Amino acid sequence: MGTTTQLPTVAVVLVRARSQWDSSGDPDRTATELSNMDTVVREEVSRFDGFVAARVGTLWQAVFGARTGAGDHDERAVLAALNIRRRLTDGESRTVRAAVVSSEVSIKALDDCHTLLPRVPSMEVWVSEQTHQRTESKIDYRPATSGMWSAAGLA
């Protein structure tokens, strides 16, 4: 029998942001607002050594751990989500929700994140049980629901 190769773990972050300008009917204002939100998301993801893999409207998908060998990608993903929420809502009429899932297979993490995000209340960052276990010494959490955890900030 051959040896089994363990797949690397990645953390996937999905962020959905809403603004009062989403339905304003002013295409220039909406485009400016979306551009501003996109800049914040990309800056924070990059700051924590992740990359934005996709964006559709006001939904961003970021991946951590796929390009670097650093073992702290789960923590960096949660911190990026918390900073995105803070920056996007600081003095602005926006709502943000985010989900972070860690998995050995990025497709599974993405699917799990897509399943989780609609359950996340506005202004919260929820993480999976695996992400919670990997980051609970660095991040403060409170129980959310069904094995999910709500990230509050640094421990």
Description:
The chain is of the alpha+beta class. The protein is 36% helix and 30% strand. It has one domain: Alpha-Beta Plaits (2-Layer Sandwich). The protein has helices spanning 27-47, 73-89, 106-116, 129-135; strands spanning 10-19, 50-56, 59-64, 94-103, 125-127, 139-143, 149-154. The protein has a 7-stranded mixed β-sheet with strand order 2-3-1-4-5-7-6. Strand 4 (94-103), helix 3 and strand 5 form a beta-alpha-beta unit. The mean pLDDT is 88.
- The DSSP helix count reads 4
The CATH topology comes to: Alpha-Beta Plaits
For this structure, what is the CATH class? Alpha Beta
**What is the β-strand count?**
7
How would you describe the shape?
globular
Task: Count the domains.
Answer: 1
Given helix and strand content, the structural type is: alpha+beta
What's the quaternary structure here? single chain
Task: Give the full name of the CATH homologous superfamily.
Answer: Nucleotide cyclase, GGDEF domain
Rounded to the nearest angstrom, the radius of gyration is 16 Å
In whole angstroms, how far apart are the ends?
A: 44 Å
How much β-strand is present in the residues? 25-35%
Low-confidence stretches: none
H and E order: EHEEHEHEHEE
The CATH architecture designation is 2-Layer Sandwich
Strand order of the biggest β-sheet: 2-3-1-4-5-7-6
